[in-house]
Amino acid sequence: MKMRVALVGVAATYAALAAPALILAQGSVPAKQVAPFTPLTAPRVELGEPTPGETEQRRFCPKRLDVCQKYWAYTAYFVDGYTIPLRDKEMR
């Protein structure tokens, strides 16, 4: 029984090592590369002048944008309403 298990293990190892070699021997089609793109030279969204007391994060995602309004509402849910005591939160 032990000999049979050992033979099966050796056979599985050889199969696992031989499969990539067989694929390479048959020749594979190279994957298409993505066309090069032009890097941005300026931000897509105008940031405008910072408001006094405004954090950097608020400046990069202003409330005037619809997606930012949803982001800040989502973030506030977790930041303002967490239930872990501050001492336990700092210990983690």
State the order of secondary-structure elements, H for helix, E for strand.
Answer: HHHH
Number of strands: 0
Q: Helix fraction?
A: 55-70%
How many strands, what sense, and barrel or not for the largest sheet? none
Cα gyration radius (Å): 29 Å
Shape: elongated
Number of helices: 4
Fraction in beta strands:
under 5%
On the 0 to 100 scale, the average pLDDT is 75
Low-confidence segments: none
Distance between the termini: 51 Å
Structural class by SSE content: mainly alpha
Written overview of the protein:
The chain has a domain at 56-91. 55% of the residues lie in helices and 0% in strands. The protein has helices at residues 2-26, 56-60, 66-80, 86-91. It is built from four helices and no strands. It is mainly α.
